[in-house]
Design a protein that fits this description.
alpha/beta, Rossmann fold, DNA polymerase, domain 1, 2 domains, 6-stranded parallel beta sheet, 8 helices
Length: 224
């Protein structure tokens, strides 16, 4: 029996990619951008991945990474002041937050963990306040005992200290803690390096030869 189960949030419990795609396409159309949808999503995703990593590496603050993303996505729009950049990003953010949805298999998996007697924590590389809002709006907050966001820790996943800090919050030794997440490197290999057990949630079903426990749905976990 697991003393604690740690879940990643984005693209594990909540459909982050679906929300991001819907938001950027709708927002871009509102602004008169007529690029093909896939191109818009590709550009936004590349900028988000690059600059969010800089935030995780403590090169930028949370607000700074938002500002640089919006300025690079809209180079033809004069966003000289931070207030202008923040207001423009807020247009996109409103659409993004409206599009948040939990995966259908998320709440049942959290409930199975609770029925098994485990403490439930979400370990996310996101900003604490924003991820807390996400849990609330998607109806998952009451299913979770602890939210552990690396914005309040010394390091982000996959650094082992992030997992050890989450174990400490959950009151669980690493060898009795299970990590479940969609990122092979950030969630699974990071957890294993910290002494936890881990399951890779490969929703696309395309991962092969990873050498780790892999499932394609949360319906497949915590069944014993």
């Amino acid at each position: 029996m697991w003393a604690a189960v740690l879940f990643d949030l984005d693209d594990t419990l909540v459909d982050q990619h679906g929300a991001a795609r819907s938001a950027v396409v709708g927002w871009a159309r509102d602004r008169g951008l007529d690029d093909p949808e896939d191109r818009l999503v590709e550009r936004w995703t590349a900028l988000s991945d690059r600059h969010y990593r800089r935030y995780q590496d403590r090169e930028l603050t949370y607000l700074e990474q938002r500002r640089v993303r919006i300025r690079e996505f809209l180079p033809e729009v004069p966003l000289d002041s931070d207030d202008e950049a923040d207001a423009t990003f807020a247009e996109h953010l409103a659409r993004y937050e409206e599009a948040w949805q939990a995966f259908p298999d998320a709440a049942p998996a959290l409930r199975r963990a609770r029925l098994a007697g485990a403490t439930i924590a979400v370990l996310t590389n996101g900003d604490h306040d924003h991820q807390s809002l996400k849990l609330t709006r998607t109806g998952l907050a009451d299913e979770v005992d602890h939210l552990v966001a690396t914005s309040r820790l010394a390091a982000s996943k996959p650094h082992p200290s992030a997992f050890l800090d989450a174990c400490a919050v959950a009151g669980s030794p690493p060898d009795r803690t299970l990590m479940i997440g969609d990122s092979l490197e950030l969630d699974v290999r990071g957890a294993l390096a910290a002494g936890l057990e881990a399951v890779w949630l490969d929703r696309s079903g395309t991962g092969r030869g990873s050498g780790v426990t892999r499932v394609s749905s949360l319906d497949q976990v915590l069944r014993d």
